[in-house]
Structure formats: C-alpha cells, structure tokens
C-alpha cells in the first residue's frame, strides 16, 4: 500500500527535478515567471496605491466634515471637479487596460515557454532558452496545437465566468437548508477544480503531441488520463494546482503591508513572492507535463526530466519567474499607488455634504482614477492570458520533447515551433477549450451565492454547503484534467481541444487514477505553498522597496518553478500512461 501511495507522487518528484536536467532553459524561464509575478504587485504599489491613498485622504476629509455644512459641499465639489482627480481617474483606467492587455499575453508566453521547456526536457532534448525560442520561431516546434488548446481553455474559462455571473440572477437570491442553490454551488466548485487540472494536462498534451492533439481533443485526452489512467496522480495534481497559490498568496499581502512604511522592504518581499510564485507556476506546468508523459508512457527515466535537459528547462524556469515577478512589480508600482490615491479621495468625498457643489466636484475628480484602474485591470487580464499561453506552450513542449528523447535548447525549441516542425495547433486548441471551460465555471460560480450572502440561512448539513464542497473538488479535478489535456495535445497532434481533455479525463479517472490524484495534489499544493510569500513581500511595499522587491523576486522564482513543474508533471503523466499497454487497451485514443 505504501509503495502504491508513493507511486502516486512519483511524477511530482520527476517534475521537481526536471528543471535540473536543463538549467540553462529553466533558469531563464523561471526568471521570466518571477519577473512577471513581481511586476504585477510593483505596479500596484508604485502606481495604483499612491492614487488610492490620495483619494482616500480626500474622502477622509469629506467624511470628517458635517454634511449639513457649506464646507462639506465645497469639499465634495473640489473632489469631483479638480483636474488632479480627473488625471488620477485617467491613470487608473490606463493602468487597468494595460493590465488586462499585458496579463493574458504574458500568461500565454509563460505557458508556452514552461510547457515546451518541460516537454522537450522530459523528451530528452537539452535546449537553451534561445535554442527553444529559435525552434519555436522557425516552426520546427509547432505552437499551433498548444495555442489552440490554450485558446479553448481560455474560452471555457470565460464561459464559466459568465455562467457564474448569471448564477445570482437564476437563483434569485433564495436559499434554504435543502436548497438546490447550494448543490449547484458545490457542483460548480468541483467542476472548476477538475477543469483546472484537465486544462493543465490538456495543454501539456497539446505540447507533447501538437499535430494530433489540440484544443478540445487535447482536453479530452487530458480528461481520459485524469479520470481513467492516472486518477490518483490527477487528484494530486489538482491539489498542487490549488494549494500552491494559496501558500504563496499571504506573502503578497504581507509585502503590501509595508508599501507605506518601507518601500524597500515591500519590494524585497515582493521579489521573494514573485520568485516563489513563478517557481510555483513553473512547477505546476512541469507537473502537468510529467503527469501527461507518465500517463502516456510510464517511463521510469522521467523521474529526473528537468535534469535531462537543463539548457532548456533553465531558461523556461527563468521566464516563469520573471513573469511572476513582473506581475507583482506592476501591482506595487502602478496599481497600489492608484488605489491609495483613490481611497484618500473617496474618504474626502464621503466627508463632504452630498448636496453641496463641492461634493459633485470631488466626485468628478475621482472618476479618472477609477477609469485608470479599470484600464490597468483590463490590461492585466489580456497580458496574463498571453503570458500564460506562452508559458504553457514552452513548459509543455520542453517536457514533451525532453521526455521523448529530444535535447533541445530553448532557442532550438522555439525554432522548431516557429518553423512548424513542432505544431502548436493542438495545444493551442486545447488551451482555448480549457479557458472556455474555466470561463463557464467562473460564471457558474458567480451564480451560486456564498453562505455569507445568504443572510445566515445556511446550516451545517445544508445542501448548499454540500454543493460548495463538491464544486471545490470538481475544480481541483478539472485543473489536473486540463493540464493533462494540454499535454496530450502537445504530444499528439491528432488530439486537441475537447478530444484532448476527454483523453486526459480517461487517463486520470480510468487508467492512471493514483497518479492522477498525485497530479491533482501537485497542481493545488504548489501555488498554495508559494502564495504566502507574495503577500509577505507586499507588506514591505511602503516600508522598504528593496525588501519588497527581493521578496517578490524570490516568490517569482518559486512560483515559476512551481508552474513549470506542474506542466512537466502533466506531460510525464501522459507519456507514462500512454506507453503502457494497459492504457492503450483502456482508452479510446484520439
């Protein structure tokens, strides 16, 4: 029994040491993850928070003024009509748009780099980052499959978000001890958990076999792997995908706590958080890749996947870390200053008489700040999607090619992808399908009110609580299935999108159940462990910028490593699951 339990975590061990096989690739990838993770909080601390503080001070002044007095109206009018407030709103809008734009892009890049780094390294290649990029650019390694898979995953995620937003309108805000609403909430949460993993594995699959497995086919492949082949490992991957960010997140909040008292400390903590966050993200992607490869092939040599091609995994890991760092840095530098300025302004508005001219003026001055924040948020979402896609592609193809015996450098891998010799179609379709499912699950989650919104009507044994619990499990499972599905689309060009996810589901739930459970744990535990460092780094944002940046860098490195590991694990899981005859007999392959 102990041996069986240990076997479920074998792919995590392989994904963990995968970057050591190709440090010249994973190091820059991890750095990229860390930098991106650092930039996000940096933008918040440097740009958003000052704006929010300024607005907050103004609002405080308004709140401390008698609403019936003439001074209150003057303060409100001043707050709404001054040119300064208009400029703050414009800056906030620009920052929000930039965040929604840059975020998705960076997320795509991070996924591509991490997944291809993990895939190629796991397959035996030893690309450097430049070599992998050159292979991707030249088309020798195709980006079509992973890109399609990532796009599908993104579409599904968006659909899930829309469904979640519609949940409250459908439910009507009513709940009871045996409410159906609670059941729906639980199911939605479980579905989200499962889809997250399936999306990861699906993208890894599309990277491993981009010509045959991409989009929905890759997600279907990941679904088969997680639900049939490597169920236990898939569960482990789900846990890793969700627990990793949970652990690292507190560090981000802690770092933000220092944003006003010591900017150096805040930046140092943010740097540590960014490093951890990037490592966690990279680990998750690597784990998904390894999970996929092991589920598809069941090779023992996959235990040290990153060490087999360090020249590829090192820059991929660096990329993961840099992106994670940049994400946190942006929050500290841009978002947090705006938020602080708007907060001070809002306090002034609240302290002003709503009937006075000053109130109107202050309100108008606050609008530009909100607009700028909206622009920043939009930009972050867009950039995150793009960077995530790239990270998945790189990590999954790195793991796939390495596991298959290739020893690409990052430049060589990128050349292969660009030249089309390694197809990105399958992984891209699978990722798109996974994103679509994620969007749909988010929408469903939004439609299910939380117990806090129920007015205290929920009970210990309420159906609502049961639904919420089930929804969490479904989300965990889907995370692993998605990881394996993308890995399927990367390995098999014929398997993409829903087909890859279905394949991943079969592997995880039927063929490799134990390994799938382990993959679930990896997918959720990794981010959970790294997340607290991010909050800790943000606590130094105002007290010590140097400390905040250092902590964010560490967080970014750890986060990138975790992401890369998750993708590599998903790829290995797929390969090992598909290599054994029992898997071939158990699955209806794409």
Automatic annotation (TrEMBL):
Keywords: Membrane, Transmembrane, Transmembrane helix
Domain of life: Eukaryota
Transmembrane segments: 25-48, 148-166, 186-208, 234-256, 262-292, 312-329, 373-390, 429-450, 470-491, 516-540, 552-575
Protein name: Uncharacterized protein
């Amino acid at each position: 029994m102990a041996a069986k339990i240990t076997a479920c975590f074998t792919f995590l061990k392989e994904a963990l040491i995968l970057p050591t096989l190709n440090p010249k690739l994973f190091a820059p990838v991890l750095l990229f993850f860390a930098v991106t993770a650092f930039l996000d909080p940096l933008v918040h601390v440097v740009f958003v928070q000052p704006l929010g503080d300024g607005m907050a001070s103004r609002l405080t002044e308004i709140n401390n003024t008698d609403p019936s007095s003439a001074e209150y109206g003057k303060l409100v009018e001043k707050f709404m009509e001054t040119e300064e407030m208009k400029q703050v709103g414009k800056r906030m809008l620009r920052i929000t748009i930039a965040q929604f734009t840059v975020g998705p892009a960076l997320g795509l890049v991070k996924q591509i780099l991490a997944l291809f780094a993990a895939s190629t390294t796991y397959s035996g290649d030893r690309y450097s980052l430049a070599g992998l990029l050159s292979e991707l650019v030249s088309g020798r390694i195709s980006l079509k499959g992973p890109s399609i898979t990532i796009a599908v995953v993104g579409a599904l995620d968006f659909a899930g978000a829309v469904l979640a937003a519609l949940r409250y309108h459908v439910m009507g805000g009513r709940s009871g001890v045996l409410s159906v609403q609670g059941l729906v909430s639980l199911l939605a949460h479980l579905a989200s958990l499962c889809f997250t993993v399936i999306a990861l594995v699906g993208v890894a699959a599309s990277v491993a076999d981009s010509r045959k497995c991409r989009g929905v086919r890759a997600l279907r492949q990941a679904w088969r792997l997680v639900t049939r082949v490597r169920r236990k490992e898939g569960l482990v991957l789900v846990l890793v995908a969700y627990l990793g960010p949970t652990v690292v997140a507190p560090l981000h909040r802690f770092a933000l706590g220092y944003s006003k008292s010591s900017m150096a400390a805040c930046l140092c903590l943010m740097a540590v958080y960014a490093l951890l966050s990037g490592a966690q993200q990279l680990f998750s992607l690597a784990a998904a890749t390894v999970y996929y490869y092991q589920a598809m092939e069941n090779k023992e040599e996959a235990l040290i996947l990153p060490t087999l091609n360090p020249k590829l995994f090192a820059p991929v890991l660096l990329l993961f870390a840099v992106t994670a760092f940049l994400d946190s840095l942006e929050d500290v530098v841009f978002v947090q200053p705006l938020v602080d300025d708007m907060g001070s302004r809002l306090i002034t508005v609240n302290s002003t008489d709503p009937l006075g001219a000053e109130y109107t003026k202050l309100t108008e001055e606050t609008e530009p700040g909100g607009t700028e924040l909206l622009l920043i948020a939009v930009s972050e979402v867009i950039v995150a999607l793009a960077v995530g896609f790239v990270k998945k592609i790189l990590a999954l193809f790195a793991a796939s090619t390495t596991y298959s015996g290739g020893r690409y450098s990052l430049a060589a891998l990128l050349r292969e992808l660009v030249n089309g010799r390694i197809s990105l179609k399958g992984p891209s379709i699978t990722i798109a399908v996974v994103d679509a499912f994620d969007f749909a699950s988010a929408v469903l989650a939004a439609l299910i009110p939380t117990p806090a919104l129920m007015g205290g009507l929920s009970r210990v044994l309420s159906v609502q609580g049961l639904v919420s619990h089930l929804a969490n499990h479904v989300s965990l499972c889907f995370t692993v299935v998605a990881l394996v599905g993308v890995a399927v689309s990367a390995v098999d060009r014929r398997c993409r999108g829903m087909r890859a996810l279905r394949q991943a589901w079969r592997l995880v739930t039927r063929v490799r159940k134990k390994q799938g459970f382990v993959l679930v744990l990896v997918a959720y535990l990794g981010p959970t462990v790294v997340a607290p460092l991010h909050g800790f780094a943000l606590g130094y944002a105002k007290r010590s910028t140097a400390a905040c940046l250092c902590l964010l860098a560490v967080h970014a490195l750890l986060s990138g490593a975790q992401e890369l590991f998750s993708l590599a694990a998903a790829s290995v899981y797929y390969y090992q699951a598909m290599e054994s005859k029992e898997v071939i007999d158990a699955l209806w392959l794409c």
